[in-house]
Design a protein that fits this description.
Elements (H helix, E strand, L loop, with lengths): L4 H5 L1 H14 L30 E7 L4 H4 L4 E6 L12 H4 L13 H13 L5 E4 L5 H13 L6 E5 L5 H7 L5 E4 L6 H8 L4 H16 L3 E2 L5 E10 L5 H15 L4 E5 L22 H13 L4 E2 L6 H9 L1
Parallel strand pairs: 2-3, 3-4, 4-5, 5-7, 7-8, 8-9
Antiparallel strand pairs: 1-2, 6-7
Length: about 325
Amino acid sequence: MFRPAYLGLGREELRARVERAVAALAECRACPRDCRINRLENRWSACKTGHYALVGSYFPHFGEEDCLRGWNGSGTVFFSHCNLRCVFCQNYDISQAIKPGAAPQGEPPVRIASMMLELQAMGCHNINFVTPEHVVPQVIEAIYVAVEGGLSLPIVYNTSAYDSLESLELMDGIVDIYMPDFKLWSAERSRNYLKAADYPEVARATIREMHRQVGPLVIGGDGLARKGLLIRHLAMPGCRDETRSILQWIADELGPDTYVNLMDQYYPAGKVGDGRYAEIDRRLDSREYLEALEIACSLGLRRTDRRMPNPKLRRRLQWA
C-alpha cells in the first residue's frame, strides 16, 4: 500500500522542519530573489506575500495530467502572487495583479490544513500545491497540521522551477511528486519574458535536485502517479530553439526515462498584448507543436505525456 513520504519522516522531524522553515522567514531566502526581509513582521517584497500564504482558490482539478487527476481530481491549492513576472502568465489575475501598497492578507496554517483535509475527504488523489516557491515555510507548517489531522495523500509540488535549493532541502522527504515547469533556456529571453535573467541557471540546479530527491516518475497500476519527477514545458511561438535546448538537457542530464509534458496551450495573456512583445502575441500553431514533439522523439525521450483519461473519469463525465 502506498505511503506518502512525509509519513516516513516522523512527527519530530517534521516539526523540526517547521521550526527551521518558519524561523527563516525572519530573513527570507525562500526563493532566488533572496530579499532577506522579515516576513514574520508581515513585511513583503518581490513575492508580495507576508507572514501567511495567500490562497487564490482550492478545488478538485480535472485539467491536470491523467496520472494526477485520475477520476476524482487533483486536490489543487493555488497560491496567489509569484516570484516571477512572466509577461505571458495565464493566471495573471492571481499571480501579479495586486494594488500597489495593498496590505497582504493570508491564511494561517490551520486554515490551509483544513483545505487539504477537505480535498482529501472529497476523494482527491493528491494535494497539488501550485506556485509554492515563495511560501515553502507556510506549506510545511500547513502539512504538519494536516498530518496531525489525518492527511495521507501524496504531495505534488507544482512549480515554475524558480526555487531556492534551501527551500528544496526543507521539502526533501516531504514532497512525493515534483512538477517543475522548465520555461526558457536562454538568459536573454528569461530577462525579457520572465524578468529573471538567472532563471535558466536556477531551473537547471533545482530540477537536478528534485530528480535527486524523488527520481523518475513512478505510476501505479491504477494509473496514478506515486512519486517522482514530472517536467512540464510550454511550447511558445517562435521559441523552437528554447524547446530544443531544454529537451536536449533533459535527455542528457536526467535520461530518456524522464516524464515530460510538452504543453500546447499557449495563448497571449498577461501583458503580451501591450505592444512590447509582438513576437509572442499570437497562438502557437499546430506545426510548431508537432516540431516540439518530433524534437523530443529524436532525442530519445520516450515518456511524453499523452492524454488517455481513466475509464472511471470517462464514465463520470458521461454521467455529468
